[in-house]
């Protein structure tokens, strides 16, 4: 192809880079590279090709590296997405040992990427959205203020809307949460069921950090009495409660009446799970289960029957008088008449378990009520860029929807948890990522403590012996937020806390960090001690804040 | 290394229009595999990237057609999507329009283009300046030119002011025909803006973004320099301000690499040598800072009447300047599931409204809506078993419209000069239009 300026440049570069004579002479080598970078007459295809070939070149010194970076800076903010992406990919591979520079490059590329997200071509928008998701894995706060750019337009196809919602969930922060939830609420009644479902589960994801506002929307949606929406909401609530057990009270009051609306198997399963777990607070729970038990003969779904068995057993443990009769009927049917061996086996197991006594049954059935892993409440940890850099600017990010927002075909959360975490018998029930996270947190913590020399140790002999969830909820009442806490039943039990006060007279705010350690030697009883402890904590915080400001 | 293994164009019904294999890595049966994947999925558009064994399909939809490339996994999605878009733009330039019929009639020309644009799967060039030396085939146009040429001539051949408006179809002719049709040299400059607006239920403007571009479509056989002057009081960036009074502000803007910006900073003049066909000269954005009021406001009243019907009283106001008007306005109002029928009272006979069950929405169409006026409509929707909770399902109203001769940012082309002055009469057209990308009013 003789007529191409761009082609010539690429050929020249490739020849130079593979020529041993030039390679052995760093100065010539460098000149070739710089000459090619300066070539501006390439069209966009030539430029992206040059940028790709350049990835093979390793600069000899840091000066040279920065030289190349500054020469390429204009391509980084190029209005053509192919060039921008190829340049960023080159930057990230050149600066793999300089995280600060990589981060600066990601921040610089924000504008062009956002522009690509608003491109006239849907496909280009989609590609840009998928790559933004990659970037957000490393810098979660990168686009927080630009959340409005990810509001869906009504004419967009469902696959773009879904990605936009995934991005919106990542961008939530204290300032924009109300706006984002308002926007997502509008999509919940979308004519496309997939979009509606994705919106509902997105609200559920936001609920993990902002449970009150999200639950308000979700329970409001139950009022529509529509099977698909109700099913999606019940499933979302189940997943939310599993992670945030403190919102179970709101949930259990909202569940009444759902059973009449639910049509599909997934939704019914979720409802059964919730009734089994929180049946003692839902007054109509036994009667709801009874309807399902009476209809078990015509039930075709295997999962439904299994879930029904477990839920009835759980409900029997907390409300034996109302449930005994129907549990008997259910077990009888499943053992005597059921054709499926799985269901029959499960029923037999429960039957024999009941023979072992109520305490034994309780131990087996009422295990975890919530996600056993450590509850990290500050969202996802930032991943290092190297985790995704190899798939940047390839087709990879466009291919998969991330699994977490796939609402279809899921069983109970505890099954999911056991699938995802095969190593649950680790001593602390923490998976490795979280262990690292905790490690990192502890390190940063001590660094901070050293820096500010603000260690104030308060010894409390009367330590609450109630559940960590109650403590957590109580502390939220006095505006003390939790950063992280260790799983219940583990010793020593730790919570990292923070609170911040905004003074009206000055614009400055005070941030107070605290660490609560429970070593497990206390014997006292609940409420009064908890109150005493909290009052100690609040007074300490108040005095501290007046001193520091 | 980015390479394209095969490239094909399918109609929306799956007919093979164009198929070209560049590398012989896979058989032609992948076309059917692709179409099976497309039809297997429900929904409005299949995902952009689909894979079959180790082959990856990347497609874009343009002109109702699927433009598909097969490639390997490590290719840049941005480059392939940009390339497919560019290819469809080239086909539009060469064939005049983009449709199944145009592609069928010009298949020889398109194969010739594909031969030049890609070699062994590597992109060679997509510049029409380079390509014009290699493309020999004449475009076959599906429409006779005489029809719209006539509309350009005024009564008795007089050049009246009326005839100074270019018909919308004028720019849809093949670029090559200018060569031997006596060279009617024309240049079109289109300023196209897309608005995306969200207005809250309390009437507060929650989001107002404008994305715009200046497109030049050039039908001049010989390249000459074009000088294009934009508003002098144009300011770019968030802090900069120029002039007093009604400044035109853009937050970000970028230019085609062929544009020379020597005079841009002082006089807001762009200089460029356009190549034949269409190109985007400048792209710009404005976010959350509309210079004027949003063009439409809605005042809805939604209630349940005594007969259990859903009553929606909609008052729509158009806040454009009185001389301008919006055309093909259509408001889509989501209604509760299970809606059966609709009766309406509209204020004029040229409007219409219908209940589209598939989209679960009432669509109210207004062909022309003058600025400063207000229209109202009453819709009664029959919904069996309507509960008060169902009223919540009357979701955000989406408006789509077109504002001809108007830009939301206020950007204007002050002048358009060709130098050296063209030998023949060169016609210069500047057109403005604002589309609604997404105009949502929450109720």
Automatic annotation (TrEMBL), chain A:
It is found in: Endomembrane system. GO terms for biological process: intracellular protein transport; vesicle-mediated transport. It comes from the Eukaryota. GO terms for cellular component: clathrin adaptor complex; endomembrane system. It is a peripheral membrane protein. Its main location: membrane. SMART domains: B2-adapt-app_C. SUPFAM superfamilies: ARM repeat. Transmembrane segments: none annotated. Residues 435-542 form the Beta-adaptin appendage C-terminal subdomain domain. Keywords: Membrane, Protein transport, Transport. Pfam families: Adaptin_N, B2-adapt-app_C. Belongs to the adaptor complexes large subunit family. This is Adaptor related protein complex 4 subunit beta 1.
Automatic annotation (TrEMBL), chain B:
InterPro entries: Adaptor_comp_med_subunit (IPR050431), AP2_Mu_C_sf (IPR036168), AP_mu_sigma_su (IPR022775), Clathrin_mu (IPR001392), Longin-like_dom_sf (IPR011012), MHD (IPR028565). Pfam families: Adap_comp_sub, Clat_adaptor_s. It is found in: Early endosome; Golgi apparatus, trans-Golgi network membrane; Membrane, Coated pit. It comes from the Eukaryota. PROSITE patterns: MHD. It is a peripheral membrane protein. GO terms for cellular component: clathrin adaptor complex; clathrin-coated pit; early endosome; Golgi apparatus. Keywords: Coated pit, Endosome, Golgi apparatus, Membrane, Protein transport, Transport. Gene3D superfamilies: 3.30.450.60, Mu homology domain, subdomain B. Signal peptide: none annotated. GO terms for biological process: intracellular protein transport; vesicle-mediated transport. Residues 184-442 form the MHD domain. Component of the adaptor protein complex 4 (AP-4). Adaptor protein complexes are vesicle coat components involved both in vesicle formation and cargo selection. They control the vesicular transport of proteins in different trafficking pathways. AP-4 forms a non clathrin-associated coat on vesicles departing the trans-Golgi network (TGN) and may be involved in the targeting of proteins from the trans-Golgi network (TGN) to the endosomal-lysosomal system. Belongs to the adaptor complexes medium subunit family. This is AP-4 complex subunit mu-1.
